[in-house]
Design a protein that fits this description.
single chain; alpha+beta; Beta-galactosidase, Chain A, domain 5; globular
C-alpha cells in the first residue's frame, strides 16, 4: 500500500495508506497524560486499523495482520524465550519473554530489557484469529500472504530460541467485507516487567503495580477505559496544540509535539517502599546513566509545565542518595545515580572518581535551580518546600560550594561535556549565580530571612562582576579569558522565569541581537568553536528574546531542519547547523526542554498544572 498521509499529535501517530481500492488508516495511541500518574505508568499502546472502500466497490475477505518478532522481549537474537496464550475477562493475550527472567541483571545504554513479558492483546469482541506461529507463516510467500489466513491452531512449542525459524506472535483481524462505511478494529501492545528499577539495592515495582494489580487486571482496565482515554487524549492533543500555537506559533507547537512522548518515554515511574512516586530518567544514546542531573535539568521544563510533582519525584532519589555520607562524599551535587536501571550510586567517572572527574558547578547549580522551581510550583496555594526543608543541610553545602567556586569556575565539564573542559566558563558561571539566588529564594520561602538576604546579596554582587568580566564589545564571551569568542547564554533563562532579576534586560537583548548575526541555515551554533548546536539549549536561548520576531529568528531555522534533515532518527538534540546532519544523540529526554517557552506563559502554565492538581 502507498502512504498518503501522516499526522503526529502529542498522544497519537496517524498514517493513511491506499491500495487495491481500499484505504487503511493506522493509529498508534499511547495515553501519555502527564497529569495522571496511574494512566501514565500503565504500559499500554493501542493500535487501531480503520478500513473503507475508496473505489465504489465492496471488497470481500479483507484481513489485517499484526506480527511481533520475539526479539522484542530479549536483548539479542539467540536468547531462549517462552510463549503463552491466556484469556482474561475482555481479551485474548499472546505473550513472550526471556526464558531465564534474570530480573534487573544488567545495566547499560545500548541494551534491551530481557526480563518481563511482551503482550499482544486482542479484545474478545473483535473478530480475529490469534496464534503463535512460525516466522515463515507471516513472511512473503507464507501462509498469511498466500491464503489470507493464519494457522487456526498454535503450531509452536512453548519455548524456542530467537532467530531464524522462531515463533512469532500473530493476530489476524477479520474485516470480511469492506465498503465505503469505515470499519475499525484494534489491538493492545504492552510490556510488563514486575520490577523496573533497583534503587539503593532495593527492587522497586512500576507505579501501576504498587497495589498488587495483576497484568490481566491492568490489561482489562486498559481495554475497558480505551474509549474514555482516547477522548481525553484527543482533547489534550487539540487543546495543547492550540495553546502552544497561540504562545509561540505553529513551528514551535510542532516541535513541542514531536518532543512530548519522546521526553517521557526515557523515564521510569516506580513506587518506593513507602508508596511515594519516584521517577528515574535514562541518559539515552550516551552512557546509559540513570538519574543524570544534567539530563534532568534540560528536561525539567516539560514537568514544570504539566506536573511539577514528576520533577519532585526525580529529585527525591538524588537527595536521598546524597544524604548518605558513606555513599556520597563530595561537597557538591552528584552527576548520576548509577547506570539504568540500577540506581545504586554514581558511576560517572568510575567507581573511584575524584573531584576532577565530576561536574561540580554544573550539577550543584542544576539541583538548586530545580529545587527552587519545584518549591515555586505551589501545592494548595502554598510553596512546595517539603523536599528542600528535609534536605536543607545538604542544599546549604552545595550553596556554600557555589559561593566559593561559581563566579569563576575552574577547568571542568558542563552538561555539554562533548565540547570538552573549559576554564572560566561564562555560561556555567551564569548557572552558579542563578543557583545562589535560587538558594536565597528557598531560604526566604522557609522563613530563613537572614540567610536569604546574605545569599541574595552575593548573587547580585556576582551578577555585576560577571558583566564586567565577560563583556566584549557587543556581546559576551565563551570564557572570561577567551577573546573573540561567544556562546549561547541559555542559563540566563531562569533569571526571567523565576523572577530573580539579577541581570538587566539589555543584556539579553544585546545577546539576542548578536546571535542573529551567527545563525546558519538550520540554527544557531552552540558557541564559536563548532557549527553544531543543541536543540534544547537553542530554544532556551530563543526564550531570552523579548519579542516574537527575535524568537522566531532562532526558531524558524529549527523548523526548517526538522523537515529537511537527512538524518531520519528519533528527534536528536545535537546536530550540525549547516548540513542538518545528526552529530550523535537521539531519542533523549532532554528534548522536554523545548517546553521552556511555554513555561514563561503563566496563564497557560497554570491551566495545565491545574489538571495535575485535580489528580492529587
Amino acid at each position: 500500500m502507498q502512504q498518503i498521509a501522516h499526522l503526529v499529535t502529542p498522544t497519537h501517530t496517524r498514517y493513511s495508506f491506499t491500495g487495491g481500492g481500499v484505504q487503511l488508516d493506522l493509529t498508534f495511541f499511547t495515553p501519555t497524560i502527564l497529569s495522571d500518574l496511574d494512566i501514565l505508568s500503565r504500559p499500554v499502546t493501542y493500535i487501531s486499523y480503520t478500513l473503507k472502500s475508496i473505489d465504489g466497490r465492496s471488497h470481500a475477505d479483507v484481513a489485517v495482520l499484526t506480527d511481533v518478532d520475539p526479539v522484542i522481549a530479549v536483548n539479542a537474537p539467540g536468547e531462549p524465550v517462552t510463549y503463552s496464550r491466556n484469556q482474561t475477562e475482555t481479551q485474548t493475550i499472546l505473550s513472550v519473554g526471556s526464558r531465564d527472567q534474570r530480573i534487573l541483571n544488567r545495566s547499560g545504554d545500548d541494551l534491551r530489557i530481557d526480563w518481563g513479558y511482551f503482550h499482544l492483546s486482542v479484545p474478545k469482541d473483535e473478530e480475529s484469529v490469534s496464534a503463535i506461529v512460525r516466522d515463515t507463516s507471516v513472511e512473503p510467500g507464507g501462509v498469511f500472504v498466500t491464503t489470507g489466513m493464519l494457522p487456526i491452531a498454535d503450531d509452536m512449542d512453548a519455548s524456542s530460541v530467537v532467530g531464524r525459524g522462531d515463533a512469532h506472535l500473530a493476530t489476524e483481524l477479520l474485516f470480511h467485507t469492506v465498503t465505503d462505511q469505515s470499519m475499525t478494529r484494534h489491538v493492545l501492545v504492552s510490556y510488563t516487567e514486575g520490577y523496573a528499577i533497583q534503587f539503593l539495592e532495593r527492587n522497586l515495582r512500576p507505579w501501576w503495580q504498587r497495589n498488587g494489580q495483576s497484568v490481566a487486571a491492568m490489561l482489562d482496565a486498559a481495554e475497558r477505559e480505551m474509549p474514555a482515554l482516547d477522548r481525553r487524549a484527543t482533547d489534550l492533543d487539540t487543546s495543547l496544540t492550540a495553546d502552544l500555537t497561540r504562545t509561540a506559533g505553529a513551528n514551535y507547537a510542532n516541535l513541542c509535539i514531536l518532543a512530548y512522548r519522546q521526553a517521557w518515554a526515557a523515564h521510569g515511574l516506580v513506587a518506593d517502599l513507602d508508596g511515594m512516586p519516584l521517577v528515574f530518567g535514562k541518559e539515552n544514546f550516551s552512557n546509559g546513566s540513570i538519574g543524570t542531573v544534567d539530563v534532568l535539568y534540560p528536561a525539567a521544563p516539560l514537568f514544570l509545565f504539566f506536573n511539577p510533582a514528576l520533577l519532585e519525584a526525580e529529585l527525591r532519589p538524588l537527595m536521598q542518595y546524597t544524604a548518605l555520607p558513606n555513599r556520597w562524599r563530595f561537597p557538591f551535587a552528584p552527576h548520576d545515580l548509577g547506570t539504568y536501571p540500577l540506581a545504586n550510586g554514581q558511576t560517572y567517572g568510575g567507581g573511584e572518581a575524584t573531584e576532577a572527574d565530576q561536574m561540580p558547578v554544573e550539577e550543584s547549580g542544576n539541583m538548586l535551580i530545580m529545587l527552587d522551581a519545584v518549591a515555586r510550583a505551589e501545592v494548595n496555594g502554598k510553596p512546595n518546600t517539603a523536599l528542600a526543608a528535609e534536605h536543607w543541610t545538604k542544599i546549604t553545602q552545595w550553596a556554600e560550594f557555589l559561593r566559593g567556586h561559581g563566579l569563576d569556575p575552574e577547568n571542568q565539564l558542563t552538561t555539554d561535556d562533548f565540547a570538552g573542559h573549559v576554564t572560566h566558563n561564562a555560561n556555567l558561571a551564569l548557572k552558579a549565580i542563578d543557583a545562589l539566588e535560587a538558594y536565597a529564594d528557598l531560604a526566604r520561602l522557609l522563613g530563613k530571612d537572614d540567610v536569604a538576604r546574605d545569599y541574595s546579596k552575593t548573587a547580585h554582587d556576582f551578577a555585576g562582576k560577571w558583566i564586567t568580566m565577560d563583556q566584549e564589545g557587543d556581546h559576551y564571551k565563551l570564557a572570561y579569558d577567551s577573546a573573540n569568542t561567544w556562546s549561547q547564554k541559555y542559563n540566563l533563562v531562569w533569571d526571567q522565569i523565576l523572577g530573580y532579576n539579577l541581570f538587566p534586560k539589555s543584556l539579553r537583548d544585546s545577546e539576542i541581537a548578536f546571535y542573529k548575526t551567527k545563525i546558519n541555515k538550520f540554527g544557531l551554533p552552540l558557541d564559536s568553536r563548532e557549527d553544531y548546536t543543541k536543540l534544547d539549549w537553542s530554544i532556551w536561548t530563543a526564550t531570552l528574546a523579548s519579542n516574537p520576531v527575535d524568537f522566531n529568528a532562532i526558531m524558524d531555522p529549527i523548523a526548517l531542519w526538522i523537515n529537511l534533515t537527512p538524518s531520519r532518527v528519533p528527534l536528536t538534540d545535537w546536530y550540525d547547523t549547516k548540513t542538518g546532519e545528526q552529530e550523535h544523540f537521539q531519542a533523549r529526554s532532554v528534548v522536554g526542554g523545548v517546553f521552556i517557552k511555554a513555561l514563561t506563559d503563566k496563564q497557560l502554565t497554570d491551566k495545565w498544572r491545574a489538571m495535575a492538581a485535580d489528580k492529587k
